[in-house]
Amino acid sequence: MKVKMMQVGPIGTNCYILEDDKTNKAAVIDPGDEADKIAQVLQKDGAEVEYILLTHGHYDHTTGVPDLKKRFPDAQVYIHQADANGAGSTLYPLAGQVAGLKHYKEGDSLTLGSLTIQVMETPGHSPGSVTLRVGDVLFTGDTLFCGSCGRTDLRGGSYEQIMASLKRLGELEGDFHVCPGHDRTSTLEQERRYNPFLMEAMRG
For the chain, what is the domain count? Predict the structure, then answer.
């Protein structure tokens, strides 16, 4: 398994390329902008793009999807249904822009070559926020950050929900690499020890 991170768009959203090194199959997670830049990395790797996966529907995580889908028309685009219904909204702009948009939910899993991508519903930053679990890696979107958590003051946000989601992540057994939607990566054990929001959630 290989994970490549690049920052895209005006506010530096983390876009991840997840590759199964056994089959060269790939998933693009949160292509927030700069589809050309993302496509160049994929083409250089000779990757076969199976999925475009979204941790949530905010524009800074989804802007690059339509152009990327044109470049890789066979790729399946997945988002939680709660974040897919915002056509015309600057917050949730994706619905209506991508034909054949698919929805995933709690407990779903996707096969990427020899890898299994598990979907965990982790609402709070947005109603349809999910965390994608692959082996010992968590793609947490804007739910869990290094030292912080996602804001809850946007439409559909809920502090109570994000606290429940953080508690759920914190109670996962073992350690994980945390790949968030912004800023630097971390580990779950580090966040359990030093992240004040995760610590508050786990006390609840």
Answer: 1
